[in-house]
Write a structure and sequence with these properties.
186 residues, 6 helices
Length: 186
C-alpha cells in the first residue's frame, strides 16, 4: 500500500509540474508537495489603494438634450464615482467633476411624464407632497437629473461627498469653462 501511495504521489507531482510548465513556472518535484496551493507558487502583489488627495480630477460635460434620463444618470454616476478609472477604490472618492447641461430637455420614456410621481414627506401630519415628472420639469428641471443620479451613488458619507461634484444646469451654458471640461458621448 505504501508503494502504491508513493506512485500516486509521483503521478500527481508530474501532472502538477506539467500544469506549471504551461505558465512558465519552474519548480523541482521535491520542492513542491501536492498539498501546496496554486496561489502560493507566485509572488504576492500588494493591493493598490488610492488616496483621495492624490487622485487627479478631471471635468466632464454631458449634454442631456434628447437623451434618456436613466442613461444620462448612469454615465454621470459612473464618472462621479470614478468607476471607469483603473485606480478605482470602493471606499475612496476617486471620481471626477460632472456638468450636465440641457437638463430641461432630457427625455423620459413611455408614459413616465404623466405617471411618474416624486414624493416627499416632511415628517409632520399632512406633510406629504407629491408631484408628477411634468410638473417638476416645469418647476425645477434640474431636480430630475439630480435625483436620478443621487439614487445611483452610495447613500452614506462618501455618496454625499461625491454628490457635491455634480453640477446640473437647465440651459446649454455653464460657468465652468475655466476648468476646460471634456464632452462625454453617451
Amino acid at each position: 500500500m505504501g508503494k502504491e501511495l508513493s506512485a500516486q504521489n509521483r503521478v500527481r507531482q508530474r501532472a502538477f509540474s506539467n500544469f506549471l510548465a504551461r505558465f512558465h513556472v519552474s519548480l523541482r518535484l521535491t520542492d513542491c508537495p501536492v498539498t501546496r496551493s496554486f496561489r502560493a507558487l507566485f509572488p504576492t502583489v500588494k493591493t493598490f489603494s488610492a488616496k483621495a488627495s492624490e487622485v487627479p480630477r478631471k471635468w466632464w460635460v454631458i449634454d442631456a438634450q434628447d437623451q434618456v434620463l436613466g442613461r444620462v444618470a448612469v454615465k454621470a454616476a459612473n464618472l462621479l464615482r470614478g468607476k471607469e478609472k483603473t485606480i478605482f477604490t470602493p471606499h475612496v472618492d476617486t471620481g471626477d467633476f460632472v456638468i450636465v447641461i440641457n437638463a430641461d430637455k432630457v427625455r423620459l420614456t413611455g408614459k413616465k411624464e404623466e405617471q411618474k410621481s416624486y414624493m416627499s414627506f416632511s415628517g409632520y401630519v399632512g406633510g406629504h407632497k407629491s408631484e408628477s415628472a411634468r410638473s417638476r420639469r416645469a418647476r425645477h428641471p434640474e431636480l430630475l437629473v439630480e435625483r436620478a443620479v443621487r439614487g445611483m451613488i452610495p447613500h452614506n458619507r462618501l455618496g454625499r461627498h461625491v454628490y457635491r461634484k455634480l453640477k446640473v444646469y437647465r440651459g446649454d451654458s455653464h460657468p465652468h469653462t475655466a476648468q476646460q471640461p471634456e464632452a462625454v458621448k453617451i
